[in-house]
């Protein structure tokens, strides 16, 4: 497994799903998963997806600037650190954001998101 | 242990040490520690501190905007996600940055930095 390839594939899958049908992101989270979104904390796939689905915009497009990854320890997890910008439909200026994911392996050989922290980078 | 209090204390200690004597940051890392700095990868306390010490500025001041933290799993680690700006001596404009740390517990009841990822957020 090439960690850089896995993290790049994850990032592409995550944001393309977010930008087309974010209610489908639930399969990437589990009951123990955590999201901190602009300082607000949520736990569990259901609560996390409810938060993402409730964001006050319909259409958006994430453009990724950088993706960094590191193994997180003996449990086989992987840290993925993303920067980019978020274009909302009807808004002139894109919003810059940073986000980190901690991916943990599943018994099926895939990964799920255990930790997710998102912040807009205000100018 | 209150994770928010620990992460806040860590962040204050880390950046005040960075801004006054960054060669002393080595005690916060161990041999297995990883740093990804603007996409460049370093491993081990010695290599990490050598990189930080070699950065092409003498004086700087980190101003922290946000600190988010989450437990990283059963090993007792903690993820700390920071945003802020970095003022370099003699530069008019501060640089925005995001940084994440994965803190792991030591047998002595303290924490060391296992993962460290730093990115400037260019406008």
From TrEMBL, chains A, B:
SUPFAM superfamilies: NTF2-like
Protein name as catalogued: NTF2 domain-containing protein
Pfam families xrefs: NTF2
Membrane-crossing segments per the record: none
Domain of life: Eukaryota
A GO BP annotation: mRNA transport
Keywords: Cytoplasm, Nucleus, Protein transport, Transport
Source taxonomy: Eukaryota, Viridiplantae, Streptophyta, Embryophyta, Tracheophyta
Record-linked InterPro entries: NTF2 (IPR045875), NTF2-like_dom_sf (IPR032710), NTF2_dom (IPR002075), Nuclear_transport_factor_2_euk (IPR018222)
């Amino acid at each position: 497994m090439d960690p850089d390839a896995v993290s790049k594939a994850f990032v592409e899958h995550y944001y393309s799903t977010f930008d087309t049908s974010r209610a489908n992101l639930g399969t990437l989270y589990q009951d123990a998963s955590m999201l901190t979104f602009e300082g607000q904390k949520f736990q569990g796939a259901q609560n996390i997806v409810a938060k993402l689905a409730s964001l006050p915009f319909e259409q958006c497009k994430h453009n990724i600037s950088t993706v960094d990854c590191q193994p997180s320890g003996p449990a086989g997890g992987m840290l993925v650190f993303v920067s980019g910008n978020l274009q909302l439909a009807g808004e002139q200026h894109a919003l810059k954001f940073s986000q980190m994911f901690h991916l943990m392996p599943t018994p099926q050989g895939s990964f799920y998101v255990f930790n997710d922290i998102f912040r807009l980078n205000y100018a």
